[in-house]
Request: fold
Amino acid sequence: MRERILIVEDEPAISEAVEYALRAEGFEVEAVDDGNTALAQARARAYDLLVLDLMLPGLSGVEVCRQLRDENPVPILMLTAKDAEVDRVLGLEVGADDYVTKPFSVPELVARVRALLRRRELDTRQAIAKLRVGGLELDLAKHQARLNGEQIPLTAFELKLLTLLAGEPERVFSRGEIMRHLWDSSYVGDERACDLHVSNIRRKIERDPARPERVVTVRGSGYKLQAV
Ligand code: CA
Reply:
């Protein structure tokens, strides 16, 4: 089955270039150019991925992402204007799964799209019932996480990261290892993104995010998950 992608971008030249490239890769592609239409369409139809521009007329990309995040596990690749926006885009407030900074090369964007889709497919395929580590329970089939029975909203990236750690509790995973797993690629980009995802996860699952007991930093090595 062909995967369906929604492009949300108000600059026609960029939208057309991305649409053309993704179609050439065999994807089914739809494009809209404002935030309100994007939100309505993403709610009405099942997409496998969204390519979402940050600055849009009407509802901003940030707002679209924020609203969808609460209701839909669709992977979201954000287009940002500058690197400085990365913290915010991957942060709790917005919750995108990945980002590309403009101006980007179309092949790079296609590679990111493929990585996000591959990751989701792997998640679905290895939908082994559930992973439990202490009070944390990951339901990979439903893309849900629970902490002491209470559902916690995780982005696709956050769930993927926790799934890796939860597969082998107490084992230390390096940042590079985590990033390669997240992107299913040897190209890991900025390892700062790993720390950002970890800090977002901590805010959601730690009693005191400043003194993490679950996702623990192992100085100079990486991160591990502990049963609490
Ligand atoms: Ca724009």
In short: Residues 160 and 182 are 7 Å apart (CA to CA). The domain at 4-123 is CATH 3.40.50.2300 (Rossmann fold). The chain has a mean pLDDT of 89. Residues 10-11, 53, 55-56 surround calcium ion (CB under 6 Å).
